[in-house]
Write a structure and sequence with these properties.
The protein contains three helices and no strands. The chain is mainly alpha-helical. It has a domain of about 50 residues. The radius of gyration is 16 Å and the shape is elongated.
């Protein structure tokens, strides 16, 4: 079964809206590990499920890159908080 095609008028607002909400959340509230994982899974599933054009794909990849950076930062912050200070 072929992946469903997302019409331009529905696909782009969905992707842009999700990314805008995610970026707003990153700057205004500290995300949890679960929230970052859910964001990452959602973006990957969108890439796998829908036929999107190259521009939207680059947008999703850029957003995934932001999520990866925040995941790494959160892991480093947690490791630093757990380590005893000598």
């Amino acid at each position: 079964m072929a992946a469903p095609h997302v019409p331009l008028d529905r696909g782009i607002p969905l992707i842009v809206g999700f990314a805008a909400l995610f970026v707003w959340r990153m700057f205004h509230m500290k995300p949890t590990r679960v929230e970052l994982l859910l964001a990452w899974i959602t973006l990957v599933k969108m890439r796998e499920t829908y036929q999107i054009d190259a521009a939207d794909d680059q947008f999703l990849l850029a957003t995934l890159n932001i999520v990866d950076k925040y995941q790494h930062k959160l892991l480093v912050d947690e490791e630093t908080a757990v380590r005893p200070k000598h």
